[in-house]
Amino acid sequence: MNGLHQSCSGPHIRPDARVWDTADVADTDAFQYYREGICAAFMPLRPEVDRARRTSFHARLMSLPVGEGVLNLVASKSHEVHRGRAEIAATPQDCYYLNLQLSGECRISQGGESIVLKTGEIGLFDGSQAFDIDHSACRDFSVASLMLPKQAGRDGLPQGAPLKFCQGGDYGRLLAETARTLARRAARNSGDDFDRLYTVILSLAALAAGDRQPTGLGADRPVAHVLRLRGILARRCADPDFTIGDLAAEAGLSPGYIRNLCTRNGEAFGDMLRAERLALAARLLGEQRHAHLPVASVGYMAGFRDASHFGRSFREVYGMSPGNWRRQGLV
Beta partners for 113? Predict the structure, then answer.
């Protein structure tokens, strides 16, 4: 299908992002359009779905460069993905996939082993070996998939079998939070530190896999702390009474240390909290179940006490009013 590549513009999408949305083509072409987009954004893959479901297939894929790799955000009806000898032979560069399941569930099978990723869980598998991904346990799913090119010095990561990172440990939990932050920032065009996030993810993935401490991790540790704090804020920002003392208690850090981290990161605690509340409001405005609510009510749900302050802050960050954001469906 010629002209598959979709160029993107607007305040809500990074200018270097590529998007494939089946809503842009006829239903009869939707699955093939998605299949070609997957191969262009990732590498040669073989998505499959029952022929009877192809005319009702819907998906959206956004792909953008991050560090040395590529971040792909996929929201789709359930289907299977295969990668075999033919697809591997047609690939110019070997890589790993680091997948964060944003919603739904999938089973990844490789080398006679399988892992199941449920919402919020993260796993890693080897793109140079055959694998199968099955989403049939759910009707719809969304995933953030980060492609990590294989390089010398990255031998500590597993090869030939999928690995599910345990979120009961510090590194696995922090890795999932960092990947979630990367995906969230990509979705709302806030990626000034994408390369730093990429570096932190590499370090955390090696640590979570049981590898030796990578060179340079110490310099990234404050960044990792900030990302962990943002993860807590993302969960708690709807509480209008949430304070830096609450954040310190949940993170196991002192308020003074958190203030110093924020200063080093060039962002005050209040700014971080406001950014998470605005991100939550943007998501709520795009949800059909909240379409009947006034914009001010959505602001209150996101933790804002004052409707005027919410409106001014939203326009400052997103370049338009909350009402226009809702009408244009920019989520």
Answer: 110
